[in-house]
Batch of 3 targets.
Target 1
Amino acid sequence: MKRLVWLLALAACAAPGPSSFDLVIANGRVIDPESKLDQVRHLGISGDSIAAISETPLVGKDTIDATGLVVAPGFIDLHSHSVAADGQRWQVRDGVTTALELEEGTFPVADWLARLEGKSLVNYGVTAGHIPARIAAYQGVTTLADAEAWRGRGEDPSGPPTWSHGPTTPEGLAALEKILESGLDAGGLGIGFEINEAPGSSREEINRLFQIAKRRSAPIFAHLRFMGVDPIQGSLAGAQEVLANAAATGASTHFVHLGSSSTSYARQVVELIEGARARGLDVTGEVYPYTAASTGIQSGLFDGDWRARMGIDYADVEWPPTGERLSERTFPVFRRQGGPVIIHFMKDENVDFLVGRPGVMIASDAMPLPGGRGHPRGVGTFARVLGRYVREKKVLELPDAVAKMTLLPAQRLEGVAPSMARKGRLKVGVDADVAVFDPATVIDHATFANPEQASTGIPFVVVGGTVVVRQGEIVSGVTPGRAIKRGQ
Ligand SMILES: [Zn+2]
């Protein structure tokens, strides 16, 4: 007993003195999806990491009072095409502390990372991309700006470009392999695929690139070759191609945006993924909480008889600059021009199913908003899940939603980037990336008519110990975001 008293006295002496932490987040409901902690605690942050999680109050140089609020790990978005644009100014107010471009990826990886170094609000990272690599290999492109310019071009009257529709050649495939390997060496977090953007890619090409991924312990992020209701050449065929390559090579594989990838086959595609997991394969998926998709009108998705394949018509497709729906007359006009369209084609019940399904992660597929127009998912995805799917529709429980935005995406990347083991959790020693939100009010405001409306109910966001959102406003002059790279 005497010994116990002595130990308690020693513990009291070791308790933090005045201002022993740089930042304290006090009185919040701390949710840690790894330990399943869900209790009121005080968080002490020193430098860029979490130094204490305490039942008793802590003293810091700066204090955030989180009474009545949830304190969660910052949200990790595995799917953002808007990282390099001012998209992260919208995402950070949606609770995102790490935004990653994993589906499309890039070329050259080093140049993409260099663009953001020292300038980023949130943590960032990118894959070596199959499409950018194809543009480099087949169009002789060597710079990031040129690769991006090719991507945004409208339809050429003389025919589709070689990078997308040209068949796989032995020289092209050899060049692709070299480009992707060098992207992984430069810190690429895996290989990103948008297979239906390059219908010329042979089955052998895709298989060979899965082999590289396996050899380099790099995950695959896959947008399917086929997405639609067609019973033979639809979503199930697309999913089966990817799963066959995952099984045969053993490469870790992640299905992007399951809602638009699986269309009306949401349950069947999830059954395929879960079946593969049950047989020991490392296969996962993600979803964004909207019933409309968005992609370039010049995409291979709109080749041939796309209306029958996808089970939609011109009027389901929106042209964001004017908000008008397409027609037989305007479709070819806009296709020659090029630019993103919004496709209203998913069913609520399928999106509800995917958002609620255990193991399916939340990721935004954020896209830039030229002229303030475009898909709202890059602005409101995370608040939308917390406000509409957890609170209003009760599709899932709050701690499960937090896990789908934090721990699960961190675990997806730990094999390729060990630093991700310090994200997606709240425990002593991990990176101080934190989202503080009000579960009673958190909500998205971004709409298809007016996407540039930030989410509310997420008053504080911390990246690497630096407060980047305070009382709902972006703090000016702070750029704590760091690169997340393969092997680090
Ligand atoms: Zn996609």
Target 2
Amino acid sequence: MAAKADVVVIGAGVFGLSCAWNLARNGRKVIVLDRAPIGTEASGWALGRLDPLLKGSGSTGSTEQDLPPGHIAKPVAQQELALLSYRLHREMTAEIESTSGIDLQVDEQPTLQLFYSDADRKSGLQSAESWTSLGFKTEILSAADITKIDARFAAPEYGGALVQGPYFIDSMRFVSALAACAKQAGVRVESATVTGIDATGAAGASTVHTDQGHYEAATVIVAAGPWSNHLLQALGVDVPVHPSKGEILRLAPPRSGSFATHLHGPCSLVNKKDGMVWVAATAADAGFDRSPSNEARERLLNSANLMMPDAGESEVLKHTVCFRPATPDDLPVVGRAGDTGSVIVATGGGGSGIMQCLYVGKLVEGMMSSDSSEPELASISLGRFT
Ligand SMILES: Cc1cc2nc3c(=O)[nH]c(=O)nc-3n(C[C@H](O)[C@H](O)[C@H](O)COP(=O)(O)OP(=O)(O)OC[C@H]3O[C@@H](n4cnc5c(N)ncnc54)[C@H](O)[C@@H]3O)c2cc1C
């Protein structure tokens, strides 16, 4: 006999769990299905940077063609979502930590964006004013100012911008905490590989087929990250979400001691609360190839070396690979899919899904409560691709 719920969510990454938690808190019976343990995919391995201002070094880049060279800030639509998402994270951190009992390892170190060209510096000067007016203190620094922060930083001649406000959490702890919050709100998280969705049932019910049996629900949410389109295409829906392979190195701390400023340039270089120096990240269209590459390792070490030679020489303790659910404009894709309206897509977090997930979960709950087919924020609607 099929298990029944109001909502079945496919995918227990941060997008699926946030949707599930929001819906269960609002009285719905929710089952989340995943083929792998919590945190197996990008939601567990991401850098965990919550930055509403600067472009990520692993951004898929497809929106960059519209921006001038050296543009260091997020494009407008991405920044709007990022600010909403960032503020919600800040508001909810204490609740997530106390409900789950998990310390998210919030780490408030400042970000130092290094400028490698005149165009970078001009873009920094332009952005500094608007970021400060948004409440993010930003100082433009000379090369000499940078070495005063830490003499080990290799200051480029064009200087940099020191930004306060972007911060870090531990992604593996965060996705585990979301799972704990969802479970406390009554969500059932079950282990199953979804093989298909039948959205043509009587009275609007959909059936989710898995290797563990069938599940029936009035609404199915597809939050299967970069695998979402495999499930959606069978319903005649083609969502342009693809895997963007991202590799990260975790290094031993430099022999000269730890450092307390996140360096951002050709990559992110950050001494995280786990004691390791994270070098993040590459971005490649390589399908679902899970193998760590020597090329990525070299590129990340060279980038680290360029910003802080002491760090770039440290031992590599871990080399991870995971997949961003990337879209052509680097924004999520949320909305009702297919003819019956009983399937909702919630994916496309790209390189910012850890930051965006709480806000996206809230929007999905809002869509269901108001019975609308699109989320309140038009820039992330599925409709822009159909
Ligand atoms: C290298 C890298 C660094 C990143 N750094 C940051 C960062 O600093 N800040 C930030 O905000 N974001 C960051 N991100 C982005 C973030 O990790 C992702 O956007 C986010 O984790 C995506 O979450 P998700 O739930 O959509 O997908 P996923 O985490 O991929 O979860 C999808 C789930 O669906 C399951 N699934 C798929 N198919 C099926 C099926 N058929 N049956 C059952 N289960 C299925 C999978 O097992 C998986 O658990 C980074 C990403 C990468 C790759």
Target 3
Amino acid sequence: MRNKLLEYKNVAARFHTIEGTTSTLNDIDLTIYEGMSLGIVGESGCGKSVTARMPIRLLPEPTFKVTHGEVIYHRDGKPFDVLKAKQNGTQINSIRGKEISMIFQEPMSSLSPIHTVGSQMRELIMQHSDMDKKQAKAHAIEVLEKARVPRASDVYDDYTFQLSGGMRQRVMIAMAISCNPRLLFADEPTTALDVTIQAQILGLIKDVQREQNMALVLITHDLAVVANMVDEIAVFYLGYIVEHGTTDDILKNPKHPYTKALIDSIPTLHSTEALKPIKGSIPDPYAKITGCPFSARCEKVTTRCRVEVPPFVSHENGHKVRCFEA
Ligand SMILES: Nc1ncnc2c1ncn2[C@@H]1O[C@H](COP(=O)(O)OP(=O)(O)OP(=O)(O)O)[C@@H](O)[C@H]1O
Ligand SMILES: [Mg+2]
């Protein structure tokens, strides 16, 4: 039996801005279990980051509003609806960065340029534990070493602007795991890095996940990145999960036309065939969409697809697909 850690139950969410109302998330149903790894994949703007930020309430409320559903965090065996808590109240503050933590795409947006690596880490550790300054420093250096930061005790005294991109990302990982979280969201952790460093950082995230036995949600627009990293994949399109299954099922037996198109658009080194890009583009976030979110770009579209949203249907082995034709 797998223990549930975080559940999204029929979640719908909107942004209300002066330009209008978005339909950012629709009918999101997703369970993250203890220790598992999940990849969230989809094109820009499909709701990946919002999904990750929602449980730790890192979104601009009340511009952002959950209009339906629940996000349940299982804490000490008890379900807790994170959406009912105060955004910056003690309950959320005790989860954010401690039990659920996050690695961001751009480390400089979450690391302070005016404090040393050490003082930022120490503050975070002391906030979430009863360690004193000296103990927190020793722990921070230990965690930097875990994140394979060379000369960890020197880097502890460095400012983040003194570090290379890859090293900043390692520091970010060290910060994210410093309080021993149960769940780590890694939101496009390597897109700003060159490919060799990217592979090292992904390897590091995977090692750390195993060592700490924490759950991992890896977010990327690149299906090839998650292929060797995660147990399960959820494919997002325009705020809907269109397919969810084991990594094997998604890659070897994709059922949704969007997933198939994503797989076809992965470049391979030895292929002589031309790449098949996905036709069309993602519509304006304020546009009103009826029917299947993918209908405007789908080659198998029927009249029904243009008027009705397909339900999220379970197939064998827990493989779920949102498509009338699957
Ligand atoms: N601060 C905001 N104000 C208004 N709308 C927003 C805001 N942040 C996100 N959105 C809306 O939510 C949608 C999903 O955004 P999100 O950041 O989750 O996309 P994403 O899948 O992470 O994309 P990317 O791959 O570019 O990071 C966007 O298309 C946009 O309409
Ligand atoms: Mg994003």
